[in-house]
């Protein structure tokens, strides 16, 4: 075996997809560039970090900024600041831990009890409001006093546990400990999010779920330190194996493509995606992560075709909490005609579940599949749903009717208005609508937009929504006056409802908005689809509208690009033509969104009625 030299890894290593670690070594093809949205997130993170540090330096004496470009010089300056007892060190670089292959540059180090605690600045929320007043447990410090000794309990909020954040903080703790400058006996670290306060976490407290790829009890929590140590070591093994494979193709690789939350922004997403589809990988359907995938494979279920071949009815019994093994023991030796209702008369819910699945007598139990039962009772209690997702995914039809759905139904009206909003984290700047008057036959639908390009989005969103709401209520009233039925449609109402109610509160329109949301005039087309169809794929609009033959002018991956375009649309330093082009792109994208829901509705109310039933597949 050739000795592998492992370059020290940074704080992101422990939370990087294992397959990406491997592919970064193997380089099987030219990787994709980082998506524009990811680049924008990096810029937003840098700006938030700059703003946070500026606020901190205004209120803290004795803060030291490490500004050397050379890495060795930065490390030297950091240790000089440590030796001088600096209260706060920003932008430092900790000594490289060559033995454990670690390197890192924490955003902040703060003095505590003779050593240092790490703090990371993140451009996301780090606190959640509690439901019951006064029950919050978050330990927080103000930026002007960023020390653990100055922390107080926020009784109205709890700390959010972002696993990735805690992995980074554990990485920095390990480096501090290796350098002998960790605060002795303190396993504490902080995160400063968009709330502008430092939220402290105990890295030794067992409050994180184990990773999916670990065998063992999924209900036994790990501390951030324990999980980090496992994750980091696990990836080092993958890295070393990949390096060895480069020199010897017979050397085994340790990672393989698995769908995870990092896929959308990964440079290897197309390479992995092609291979996942080629092998009909189990992780392609919802709910099958690395852990469930491993469980299925342990029982010889290696792909979606194998999963689709399991017995749905047996899995449904387990899902419905029928004690199948106990029931089989009770009916042993009884005549096949014996009613099951008499065997387990004291279990009426189980009797009802059995009857709903057509199992009425002892003889009917012969249909129970032993292999499916074994898999379900081993930990796949919700396999029934995943069996149907697999059948839909590998089936010949683009979609299937769910069980119990004989005919697709879609709420329709004389006047139909499709609604879609565009927003960023700071607010909602555009409401778009497509108006279709079905009373006048084949007349083109009319798109109308209510937008604000004011960089002050807080002021602009109120103006845009006020104009939209006045127009929408006017259209609704006009339809009523003409004796016409009226419905407005969205796709995934939680987004539109959340923005409408939030802005309505500030405009004194909440009662009107609440009435509209609760009425039959407001229809969530996503609910219509989910209630009646199964595809084995995402139910997002970008995945369902193509079933109706619809496509976006900007491509199907333009959702995150719209956020990038908004930055350009309101950039006062850009030339007018560039801003206008970005604004037009967003309007066209929004128009395509509302036209997509209209096309999907027409398809559901027409051709989709010929779709087969999922119950007819694999039975």
Structure characterization notes:
The protein has 619 residues and is an alpha+beta fold. It has three domains: 49-212 and 220-226, no CATH class; 279-394, no CATH class; 415-614, 2-Layer Sandwich (Nucleotidyltransferase, domain 5). Helix content is 42%, strand content 14%. It has 21 helices and 19 strands. The protein has helices at 18-26, 36-59, 71-83, 163-178, 224-247, 269-278, 290-298, 304-308, 312-319, 324-331, 340-343, 348-356, 370-377, 383-394, 457-481, 493-507, 510-518, 525-532, 541-544, 559-569, 576-604; strands at 63-65, 88-90, 108-112, 115-121, 127-129, 138-142, 152-154, 157-159, 188-192, 197-202, 206-208, 222-223, 400-401, 415-424, 427-437, 446-451, 486-490, 522-524, 533-534. The strands form five sheets. The protein has an eight-stranded mixed β-sheet with strand order 1-2-3-4-9-10-6-7. It has a five-stranded mixed β-sheet with strand order 16-15-14-17-18. A two-stranded antiparallel sheet has the order 5-8. Helix 1 runs parallel beside helix 5, helix 9 runs parallel beside helix 13 and helix 9 (312-319) runs antiparallel to helix 14. The longest helix has 29 residues, at 576-604. The radius of gyration is 29 Å and the shape is globular. The two termini are 51 Å apart. The model has no long low-confidence stretch (mean pLDDT 92).
């Amino acid at each position: 075996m050739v000795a592998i030299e492992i370059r020290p890894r940074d704080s992101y290593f422990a939370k990087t997809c294992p397959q990406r670690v491997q592919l970064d070594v193997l380089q099987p093809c030219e990787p994709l560039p980082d998506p524009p949205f990811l680049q924008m997130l990096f810029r937003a993170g840098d700006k938030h970090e700059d703003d946070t540090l500026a606020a901190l330096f205004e209120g803290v004496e004795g803060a030291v900024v490490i500004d050397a470009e050379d890495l060795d010089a930065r490390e030297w300056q950091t240790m000089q600041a440590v030796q001088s007892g600096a209260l706060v060190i920003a932008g430092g670089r900790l000594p490289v831990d060559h033995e454990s292959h670690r390197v890192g540059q924490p955003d902040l180090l703060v003095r505590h009890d003779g050593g240092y605690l790490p703090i990371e600045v993140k451009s996301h929320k780090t606190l959640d409001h509690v439901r019951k007043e006064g029950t919050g447990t978050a330990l927080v410090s103000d930026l002007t006093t960023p020390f653990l000794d100055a922390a107080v309990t926020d009784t109205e909020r709890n700390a959010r546990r972002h696993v990735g954040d805690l992995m980074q903080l554990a990485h920095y703790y390990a480096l501090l400990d290796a350098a002998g400058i960790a605060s002795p006996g303190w396993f504490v670290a902080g995160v400063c999010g968009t709330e502008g306060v430092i939220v402290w976490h105990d890295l030794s407290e067992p409050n994180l779920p184990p990773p999916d790829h670990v065998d063992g009890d999924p209900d036994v929590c790990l501390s951030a330190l324990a999980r980090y140590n496992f994750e980091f070591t696990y990836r080092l093994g993958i890295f070393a194996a990949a390096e060895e494979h480069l020199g010897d193709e017979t050397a085994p690789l340790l990672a393989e493509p698995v769908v995870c939350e990092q896929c959308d922004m990964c440079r290897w997403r197309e390479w992995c995606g092609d291979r996942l589809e080629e092998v009909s990988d189990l992780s392609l359907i919802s709910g099958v992560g690395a852990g469930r995938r491993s469980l299925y494979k342990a029982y010889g279920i290696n792909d979606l075709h194998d999963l689709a071949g399991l017995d749905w009815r047996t899995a449904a019994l387990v899902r419905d909490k029928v004690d199948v093994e106990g029931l089989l023991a009770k009916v042993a030796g009884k005549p096949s005609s014996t009613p099951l209702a008499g065997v387990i008369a004291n279990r009426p819910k189980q009797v009802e579940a059995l009857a709903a699945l057509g199992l009425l007598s002892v003889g009917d139990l012969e249909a129970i599949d032993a292999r499916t039962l074994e898999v379900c009772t081993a930990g796949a209690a919700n396999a029934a749903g995943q069996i149907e997702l697999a059948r839909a995914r590998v089936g010949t039809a683009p979609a299937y009717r769910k069980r119990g759905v004989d005919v697709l139904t879609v709420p329709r009206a004389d006047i139909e208005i499709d609604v879609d909003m565009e927003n960023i984290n700071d607010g909602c700047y555009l409401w778009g609508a497509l108006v279709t008057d079905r009373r006048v036959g084949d007349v083109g639908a009319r798109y109308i937009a209510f937008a604000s390009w004011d960089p002050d989005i807080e002021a602009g969103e109120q103006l845009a929504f006020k104009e939209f709401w006045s127009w929408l209520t006017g259209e609704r009233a006009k339809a009523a006056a003409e004796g016409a039925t009226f419905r407005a449609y969205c796709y995934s109402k939680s987004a539109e409802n959340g923005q409408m109610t939030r802005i309505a509160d500030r405009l004194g329109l909440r009662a009107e908005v609440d009435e509209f949301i609760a009425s039959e005039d407001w229809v969530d087309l996503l609910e219509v689809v989910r209630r009646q169809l199964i595809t084995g794929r995402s139910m997002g609009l970008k995945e369902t509208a193509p079933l109706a033959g619809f496509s976006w002018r900007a491509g199907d991956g333009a959702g995150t690009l719209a956020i990038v375009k908004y930055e350009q649309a309101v950039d006062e330093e850009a030339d007018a033509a560039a801003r206008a082009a970005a604004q037009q792109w967003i309007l066209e994208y929004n128009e395509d969104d509302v036209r997509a829901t209209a096309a999907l509705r027409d398809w559901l109310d027409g051709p989709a009625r010929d779709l087969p039933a999922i119950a007819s597949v694999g039975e």
